[in-house]
């Protein structure tokens, strides 16, 4: 699966309530994940690879498979964002790998330099499992979308892209949200075909 990227998630002041499809996390768990993300970036600066973690050394809630996105900001601007759309690794391991990738493998940006490290803001998004969103046409899609709540995956092989729910903050209208998602996937903004498939999910932002 190709690397997925997204725009800048918001920075909540508190961890939202647990979703029934995500492991319940304490504030301490959230702090551990943010610390692991920062350590993996520092490890990348020193070693050129993500930090390896041993999930069994972390709380059980951080050992469960969860898909995550890691977003980096610098002085309020996006500096990198990479994530997973499917839960394939323990949560703490997924965060470590995606933090490294956001810092060094987001093709939109040069790799993070040592001088930038102290200025990075790290934001984590935990994704619920995606579910198919069957639609008859674009009008049907626009009616079914839940602004501010839905993360959306678009697939029209070989094209694929996603927007996290936080992107609704900059694209609050469903028409603009879908149009820009098509552009991100490398498709014309007015594109529609019988091969188009959509999936939605929600996130817990840390």
What would your notes on this structure say?
The protein is 26% helix and 21% strand. The protein is α+β, with helices and mostly antiparallel strands and 206 residues long. The protein has two domains: 27-127, Glycoprotein, Type 4 Pilin (2-Layer Sandwich); 131-205, Dna Ligase, domain 1 (2-Layer Sandwich), CATH 3.30.1490.150. The strands form two sheets. The protein has a four-stranded antiparallel beta sheet with strand order 2-1-3-8, covered by helices on one side. Strands 4-7-5-6 form a four-stranded antiparallel beta sheet, with helices on one face. α1 crosses α2.
Produce the secondary structure layout.
Blueprint: H1 27-47, E1 67-74, E2 77-83, H2 91-104, E3 120-127, E4 131-132, H3 138-144, E5 151-156, E6 159-163, H4 174-184, E7 197-201, E8 203-205
Antiparallel strand pairs: 1-2, 1-3, 3-8, 4-7, 5-6, 5-7
Helix pairs in contact: 1-2
Characteristics:
206 residues, alpha+beta, Glycoprotein, Type 4 Pilin, Dna Ligase, domain 1, 2 domains, four-stranded antiparallel β-sheet, 4 helices, 8 strands
Q: Give the fraction of residues assigned to helices.
A: 25-40%
**Helical run tally:** 4
Distance between the termini: 25 Å
Assign the CATH architecture of the largest domain: 2-Layer Sandwich
Into how many domains do the coordinates divide? 2
Q: What's the count of strands?
A: 8
